[in-house]
Amino acid sequence: MKFTSHSVGPLNNYSRCFFGLWFLAMAASVGWRNAEGPSYKEQIDAWHQTRINSLKSETGWLNLAGLFWLSNGKNSLGRGTDFDLDFPVADAPADLGALYLENGHVRFVPKAGAAVLADGKLVTGPLVIFAPDQKPLVLAHGSLRWFIIKRGPKYGVRLRDLDSPQLKEFQTINRYPVDESWRVKARLETPSTPTTIPIIDVLGLTSQQPLAGTLVFERAGKTYRLDAVEEGDKLFILFGDPTNEHETYGAGRFLYADKPISNAGTGLVVLDFNQSINPPCAFTPFATCPIPPKQNKLTAAVTAGEKRYGDH
């Protein structure tokens, strides 16, 4: 049978339609997987790279070069043992001036010619850099940055060196293999009345922190509980587990989680232990880290997240 031009046209249209549908089906089963976004492991790897970048940033923990506690009254600062605050940086100026701690306020008086900056402007006279009702000012000279921190009744100077050797030596933090089974759902049990829990830091100071709630979750058929406090718009969990003995930081690790949606009524929180991180004290002796409360010491080994860094 001889097909006319009129009979060939519909057959070609049918073929094009068939192969078009076939191509769409193949794309849906193969090519379109990329459109769904990165895999879970890729998401955790990207999150971890952001974490590394944060540690290496100007406000990260790797550039800390000193922590000095202030006495009431005058505290001289510079390089050398003749100063109350001896900045241990080879190219630090011999004399930067003095800090005066008086009634919860800290005032900086620069040494003439020291070229100390505050918010990019030269400090030419006495300047209050810390007060209870204001954000601490950051002072700068060359690669040095310093500002005031308060821990309990103590006031200290935290020193950064943007040219710190540790920044150049740092590569990454070893981690456990990403394991999605450590991404668990927890129920947040909130206290019926405002409650605080005592948190001790490495200085031995105790602070009472408002309890956001207790996170209850299951793992391998067992139920576990972790108390959480608030940090900004996140839940903050300090926890310890048996891996602290040899594999992870000895004093425990940190974990952050999103708060449950208030109008959902479920109180469910996702705890992703693959995002467990070392506290700042794992990287520097100049941090003042909190320690997990005893009720947050898990009996299960959490083989997820960051491992021990260096010799800490």
Key terms:
disordered N terminus, six-stranded antiparallel sheet, 3 helices, 312 residues, seven-stranded antiparallel sheet, alpha+beta
As residue ranges, the low-confidence spans are 1-34
Mean pLDDT: 87
The helicity comes to 10-25%
What general form does the structure show?
A: globular
Order of helices and strands: HHEEEEEEEEEEEHEEEEEEE
How much strand? 25-35%
Task: Describe the secondary structure blueprint for this structure.
Layout: H1 5-29, H2 40-56, E1 64-69, E2 73-78, E3 85-86, E4 97-102, E5 105-110, E6 117-118, E7 121-122, E8 127-130, E9 139-141, E10 144-151, E11 154-161, H3 165-169, E12 183-189, E13 196-200, E14 206-219, E15 222-231, E16 234-239, E17 253-258, E18 268-272
Parallel strand pairs: 2-3
Antiparallel strand pairs: 1-11, 2-4, 4-5, 5-8, 6-7, 6-9, 9-10, 10-11, 12-14, 12-18, 13-14, 14-15, 15-16, 16-17
